[in-house]
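Continuing the series of single-chain predictions for the mutant panel. This is the parent chain; the variants come on the following pages.
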Amino acid sequence: MERVSLFSFAPSRGPRWPLATQAALGIAVPIAVMTLLGDASPGYIAASGAFTVLFAGSAPAVDRARVLPLVAAGLLLAAVLGVLASGNDWLLSIGVVVVAVASAALAFGFRLGPPGPLFFILVFGLSAHVVGAASVPPLVYLAALAAGCLFSYLVALAPLLLPRIRAIPRRPLRELLPGPALTLDSRLLLLRVAIVAVIGVLLGIVIDPERTYWIVGSGVAVIGVAAARRAAFERGLHRMLGTVVGAGVYILLAVLHPAGLWLALLLGVLQFSIELVVVRHYALALAFITPLVLLLTGAATGSIGSLDVALERIIDTVVGAALGAASGLLHARATPRERE
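Parent structure:
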């Protein structure tokens, strides 16, 4: 098993800049366009649609053309559920568990791959939070998010403009998303997600029900899509340290109160950086992911610059990452050969 250290990078798995560029455009362009049109608010919501392009990143565009619409549909369904649960703590708590377990079952059962169920949980929570905190009309929110998903999908298909990309043979959808079937490892991962979701929600009820999705999301991010005890503890450590550093980066950036085109550029740079390093150093990626999500959420709700929010996210992440790491105890210890 490959070891991931805080002080070294994992080996490169091929060029990441094409996917990084697509993700950066997906998050930056909607904000820039709406800013130039005179109302940046829908752009901040549409920017969340950039999560669509993060899936099936290693597949050729001819295959992503059929996988990504299913991902976008899942994100929109999670957003609808979040909007419906907004303002009701019990519905939020139940919804986090339902979305976490259902998205994990589908992601693992059909071998969707990284980033797994994480962004479905985040979209559910962000939708409930933004609609409630910013008093955005639900239909306006969902329309903006759908537009963002569509734009990101088109960005992901841009390589098809090249004849050599269109000439790549298409694989059957059943081969791209084999299943539904849960292996032993997949069942353990699903069990871990369910445990983290339930315990995270119970803790969230005590801490703050509106922040439950971040606690559960942090735990699910630690679980990832790899079934290994050591990976759970390493990702938990990366998650906690990366988020603390990322919260500090957010504070430094928030002091500048970026908005409009400057915020679009900043978020694009952060997203590009994330995709370049996320498969090689998870903690470093979190140092970019945390300020990106906090800035995007703050822009959508009008709360950029809140130090309280940064502190809350650190607390939530530490709790969630600890849960995710502890759930790794469900896996058997690696054999000496597996540790090599």
